[in-house]
């Protein structure tokens, strides 16, 4: 699983856990529902600005870091959590 797959999956999981529709999340993040769907389905890579807005809309933190087991321990990637 690459970075964008992980980010998209985290967005979907948090959105569902918060009981929000994709349309509601898109509205709160000030982006179209279609664009939000493409971000969640890894059709588009979200900008850092959008990731921050999505994290705020989900009451999450976008800068939690996770280790990538395929790389050395010093490499980690930010994801929405």
CATH homologous superfamily placement: lambda repressor-like DNA-binding domains
Number of helices: 4
Could you tell me the number of beta strands?
2
CATH topological fold name: 434 Repressor (Amino-terminal Domain)
CATH architecture: Orthogonal Bundle
Structural class: mainly alpha
Envelope shape: globular
Instruction: Quote the average pLDDT.
Output: 80
List the helices and strands in order: HHHHEE
- SS strand fraction: 5-15%
Low-confidence stretches: 71-77
Distance between the termini: 16 Å
The strands making up the biggest β-sheet line up spatially as 1-2
Q: Helix share of residues?
A: 40-55%
Task: Tell me the number of structural domains.
Answer: 1
The main pleated sheet reads as:
2 strands, antiparallel
Based on CA atoms alone, the radius of gyration comes out at: 12 Å
Question: Could you name the CATH class?
Answer: Mainly Alpha
Outline of the structure:
The chain is mostly helical and 81 residues long. It has 4 helices and 2 strands.
Describe the structure.
The protein has helices spanning 3-17, 22-28, 33-40, 48-57; strands at residues 64-67, 76-79. The chain has 81 residues and is mainly alpha-helical. It has one domain: lambda repressor-like DNA-binding domains (434 Repressor (Amino-terminal Domain)). Strands 1-2 form a two-stranded antiparallel ribbon. Helix 2 packs across helix 3. Mean pLDDT is 80; it is low at 71-77.
